[in-house]
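Hi R.,

Here's the chain you asked about this morning:
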Amino acid sequence: MNDFMIIGGGVIGMLTACQLAQAGHGVTLVERGRCGQEASWAGGGIVSPLYPWRYSEPVSQLAQGATHRYAELAERLLETTGIDIEYRQKGLLYLRVDDAELASAWAQRQGWPLEKVDASFIYAREPWLCEGVSGGLWMPTLGSVRNPRLCRALRARLEALPSVTLVENTAVERLVVERGRACGVETAQGRLAAGRVILCGGAWSGVLLAEHGVALPVRPVKGQMMLFSTPPMPGGRQLLERVVLADGRYLIPRGDGRVLVGSTLEQTDFDKRTTAEARESLWQSAVAMLPRLAECEVEHHWAGLRPGAPDGIPFIGAVPGIEGLYLNAGHYRNGLVLAPAATRLLVDLLLAREPAIDPTPYRPDRRRVRSAALGSLDRRQGDGVDDIVDQRPA
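And the predicted structure, written out as tokens:
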């Protein structure tokens, strides 16, 4: 029996397993499919909240703690696995921001690089953007990763650690709780035991807790995205070389020239099917920002399920009423963004280390949560959507 069992093999679960193993503990990670194939794979890979000034302080604290760790993580994974996660720190151009003064005030308070720029600045960096851009905001330090490669690298790292047992293609049917303490899980293949259990199941986390009377307000929020294949451009440039964000939609360049566009916000329970309506909406958004994408092939269109929580603040810590059970879920659109800091916070709590940030705002028993609070992820606190329960592509 290992010291810890982690339910869920996304980036949150895999990073948690890495940190616990490196601290000398035995870890079993249970994943219903293959590690890194759900929301962690489906996201865009921007390692900052899209509009960081619109988020609450707890999300900002985690985001700041995580952003600075990605360069180190990328280097370490390349050394240990040989997989380049394509961490690129080429900045983000914001177009048509209607609360630029709020953004500037936030950046000044946080000491975060963010500046107003004019059209000449923008077109000098991205000459094939749409005509008529008069100016915008520039965040030069923003980075992105190629998240499918991050997932592969983390899985390869876990496979190489002798104290980690990966149990894939194994669905957890229920938590095993005896005399008020979590001690393992039941699966179709039988019972798996552990000293302590950590639930990192993303949008599915609440399903397992509900059986034990714990109401977790984390719900699936579908996001659809598309990938364009683009040709080489004159002068050895790519069609797009920096992340661009306008009207809540973003374009993300990959190192091989591909361009990703995202994303929709849809509450459709656990339905991950793509739709023709979303495909058209994404295509129109992409072409409006970068017109030459109209000539490019759409290589892939997919959907994933984000774990939406009230105000976008994840639940991190001990689950009330069940000894030995811990939770790290509800990161909404910022799972990749927050992962290094969110997992470090939980591991600090598990190992009785002094955490770098106050864990109180993330506690699973925080009283300010209301069961229907998903609608509170509004434009002021979130990233440009009117309401998380709106099923229209955002």
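The first strand starts at residue 2 and ends at 7.

Let me know if you need anything else.
M.
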